[in-house]
Every structure is written in structure tokens, then in C-alpha cells.
Amino acid sequence: MLNCQRSLFELDESVTFLNCAYMSPQLKSVSAAGRHALEHKKKPNTIHLEDFYQPVQRVKQEFARLVNCPEPNRIALIPSVSYGIATVAKNLPISSGAEIIMPSEQFPSNYYAWERLARENDARLVTVSVPEGPNKGQRWNEAILDAINENTAAVAISHLHWAEGVRFDLEAIRTATEQVNAWLVIDGTQSVGALPFDIQAIRPDALICAAYKWLMGPYSTGVAYFGPALDNGVPIEENWINRKDSHDFRNLVNYQPEYQPLAGRYCVGEQSNFLLVPMLETALQQLNAWGVENIQAYCRQLNEPFLAELKQLGFKILPIDQRSSHLVCVGLPDGVDMEALQKELSAHKVLVSVRGQSIRIAPNVYNNEQDWAQLLAVLRSVTKMTTA
Fold first, then answer.
1. Three-state DSSP class for 206?
2. Residue ranges for the chain with pLDDT beneath 50
3. Residues 6 or more apart from 356 whose CB is under 8 A from it?
């Protein structure tokens, strides 16, 4: 079991930060890697051929280890979720009348590319929702499974709903999509790095992750897994380094029709980013050293006593088998005013996200009981205002 890792992070001790789902604080080791990289970049004579390739390959290996992918060359470096989703959308076989299924109110970066694809191909975008109430997670999973049929071209989904905190049953959804030859495209931004994800168990066609949240990397970096369905696809940009034998600088003008193998063709141009790639590598190394299963266990052990009290106060929380422990959405009790709650949170410098009539609590290994106690004190005071 992990102990609190607070000392390893650059944290503002004047605030209570329970909001990794917004953006992670930075590891001190990642800051150090960035400073070292900046010094290195100042002297271009010290940047050699291997610096274009070896750090990128190490990032691929670290991420492959994180998600139990046996083939690191199925990993691509990307700048954003929208870049990775656009890559998959460009290659998805689709025809008139086909359907793309997704949960309602999904994060926009895993929506807009599919909306355009459906509109331009006379296909249909099917958003699946369920009414509020008990066991929403279970009912939502059942509704998505019921929506999959012979017309389904793809299911575009996250592991956790970014605003609701519902955990989707990806293995069951994968089984259903395989039965109708549909693709499964997963946005792992709000889960990978804090909730175990197994490529070999889930078998997605693509897994797309921004790195600045639970992967603890710098902004404008991301990683993606592309499965066998995309082995011979077309990237959304053509760049020199993604071509076969690009390491042979002398022959770059002898234009090469073949790409790098597997996901090599899908890496963003200037993938060798000499500043950000070392920072991302350092972050992934730390996550692998901790073990994602240990991160999730730490969050669960930290949360549960406080969540039990919130339930007694009337806050609405999904059962543990329908959510995660690193991203918990808590619905307000009847009569509690969200605006009043936001004012109290701000006054006490407690940082969580607000989503509709819920707050999204997103702890990580740098949080401790004192952080939760600060949040709980604010929530208690607001409920007392309501009952006074």
C-alpha cells in the first residue's frame, strides 16, 4: 500500500487541491527533467540523432507498460485527445445509415470529430442517456449495450464519464462491439494513470489519453494506442519522421512511400519535442514505479470514511462498483444551493470541480486526511445553512 506522496510534488500549501481531474500538480522530478531539457536545448550542438528517437521510444515503452500493451510500437505520441480521435475518425470504415454510439454529455474532444464524420457520411450519431436515480451507472451501461446493433460502426466512450463519474464496463462493451464488427474507441484521459487499464483484457481499437491529468505529464502532450484495425491506416498529417528509415538523414530527400511500423505513422510532427518528452517520460516512470493499482487503492482508502459521512449528510454518491475512487461525483442533498456552496469552497480555498448539481472530487497520492477534512468541513457547514 502506498503512503502519501505529497513531498514529491510542487504544491501550493495555501489551498486544498482535490482536483486532479482538472489538471495534476507537477512532480518535482518532472520539473527537474524540464529544467534539464531546457538547458540541453540551449546548445543545439549537443542534440544528436539518437535524441530524435530514443526518448520517444522510452515514452512508448513506459506507457505500454502502464496499460499492459505487449507491443510498444503500437503507441503514438500525440498533442491532444482531439488529434488522436481525429486520427481514428479518418480511418473508421463508415457508410450511409451507420451509427456511432456514445454516452450523452461526453467531453467535447471525443464528440466533434464523430459528429462531423456522421454528418458527412449520412450516418447517425446516437447519444445514450438514462434518467437520474439510483444505480445510474448500472442502468447507463445496460442502455449502451442495448444500443449496439448491426448498424453500429463504432462506440466512442471513456472509461469514466468526466462529469458524472460513472465507470463504463469496457470489457462487456468490447464483447458487444466485436459481435457486430464495430470499433471501440476509448478516451482514457480521466482514468489511465489512476485506474488500472489492461489493453489485453479490453482489446480496444484505440485508446487516446491527454497527459496533463492523471498521467502527470506536461500540457500539450498525450499518448495513444492504435490496435490492428488501424495498422494500414492514413495519418492526419504527413511528416518526415514517421516514414520508414527516417533516421537516415542523408537520404531524406529520397522520398519514402512506406511509414514506420504499426502506430509509428500516427505520431504528431516534431514528436521528438526536446522539452516536453523528457518531462512526460519522467512522469510515466513514476506512475509505473508506484503501480496504478496502488494509486487507486490509496484513493479508495483515503476516501471511504469521508464518503460514508457525506452519505449520512444526504449527499448522493454512486455505489463503489459503479464508479472509481480517484474521481467521485457527489450530488448535493435536496435544498443545498450550489452557488452558496461555491462561495464557501472559494472562501476556504478548497478546489474541486462543479458539474451541474454535483461536485467532482478528484484526489491523488499527494492528498491526505487533512485535505478531505477541509472539504468535509465546508460541506457540513453548507448543509447546516440549509437546515437552519
1. strand
2. none
3. 163
Shared domain for 139 and 106, answered yes or no, is yes
- Same domain for 151 and 79, yes or no, is yes
Q: DSSP E strands: which ranges in the chain?
A: 9-10, 16-17, 26-27, 75-78, 99-103, 124-128, 152-158, 183-187, 206-210, 222-226, 316-317, 328-331, 350-351, 353-355, 358-361
Q: What is the pLDDT, as a whole number, of residue 147?
A: 98
For residues 271 and 334, membership in a common domain is answered with no
Domain around 146: 29-290
pTM greater than the 0.85 cutoff: yes
Residues 58 and 198 occupy one common structural domain: yes
Residue labelled with grid coordinates 512511400: 257
Q: What phi, psi does 26 have (nearest 5°)?
A: -95, 135
DSSP-derived secondary structure for 254-267 = S---PBPSGGGGGS
Whether 1 maps to a domain, the answer reads: no
Report the pLDDT value the prediction gives residue 252, as an integer from 0 to 100. 82
Q: Which three cell numbers stand for residue 159?
A: 472509461
Q: Tell me the β-bridge partners of 128.
A: 103
Query: Is the Cβ–Cβ distance between 145 and 172 less than 8 Å?
Result: yes
